[in-house]
Write a structure and sequence with these properties.
Blueprint: E1 26-34, E2 37-43, H1 45-54, E3 70-75, H2 89-98, H3 105-120, E4 124-131, E5 137-143, E6 149-154, H4 159-176
Antiparallel strand pairs: 1-2, 1-3, 4-5, 5-6
Helix pairs in contact: 2-3, 3-4
Length: 177
């Protein structure tokens, strides 16, 4: 039966000298077995080399009797910044227009979220809203500088659904770039 092991990320400090490890700094990462789990320990290069010299070129740095079962050189990761997706406005407008007249619910949702994005960018202007006999709400809109009418069905999505569709839309647009 397979076992699952949870190995921690870097502690952002050298486990030997306790000096902070800065983002982008080279480090030596190790995995050691302790009791019934694996433990990650990170070393600044100076402490790693000093420990290797003290152990005669072998493992066992920092007074450990156990030999690391994995050793690799890497860099301290930089804190993740939210990736800003840059998409050309023309591409957004083109995608919005290509989805016009669609009947598929997923595409209707995509077009609605695109309309919200274009409104936020002040490229699409809301004119009015009308209720259809079946209760469907349809927004009448136009692109800034253009009087051509665009009808956008409001699929009545909640915030979670809008976030889900926005995420899928971002994935699609990233693939377009």
């Amino acid at each position: 039966m397979a076992r699952e092991y949870n190995i921690s990320k870097t502690a952002r400090e050298c486990c030997s000298c306790r000096a902070p490890l800065a983002p982008g700094q080279p480090i030596v990462a190790t995995i050691c077995e302790s009791a019934e789990e694996f433990e990650r320990k990170d070393y600044c290069p100076d402490c790693w080399e000093a420990g290797r010299a003290a152990a005669g070129g072998q493992g066992g740095q920092d007074g450990r009797a156990a030999e690391p079962i994995a050793v690799w050189r890497t860099r301290v990761p930089t804190p993740k910044q939210k990736k800003r997706l840059f998409v050309d406005d023309e591409l957004l407008v083109n995608f919005f227009e290509r989805l016009d007249g669609t009947e598929e619910p997923a595409r209707i949702s995509f077009r609605f979220v695109l309309a919200l994005v274009l409104m936020r960018k002040k490229l699409l202007v809301y004119d009015r809203s009308d209720k259809q006999p079946d209760g469907t709400e349809v927004w009448t809109m136009h692109l800034k500088g253009d009087r051509q009418v665009h009808k956008v069905v409001n699929p009545q999505m909640d915030e979670d659904k809008i976030a889900e569709v926005s995420g899928k839309l971002s994935e699609i647009l990233e693939g377009e770039l």
